[in-house]
Input
Amino acid sequence: MNVANLAELYCILLLRSGQAAAEKERNVREYDVRICEIDDGELWPQAAKLKALWLISLADAFAAATALIMDGELVVGLDDGFDQIEGLRLVNIS
Output
């Protein structure tokens, strides 16, 4: 996970409850999820390319770029829209 997507998750949860947001952020860190910075010179350019090529949101582009660069899987729900991105491995939880 990268810091942009962590911030988006936190924001969504914060709108519901500050306590829930703080709890979920702690959970992410307790599950030993690696939090990637976006200023590494590799992640943000890849996200920009994906956004331009596939016309996806910036947050989605960062999520996809993180999975591609880290050779990981992207966990998606109903609104995935990531099928067209070559090399991206998806885990659908819907």
The first strand starts at residue 73 and ends at 76. The mean pLDDT is 91.
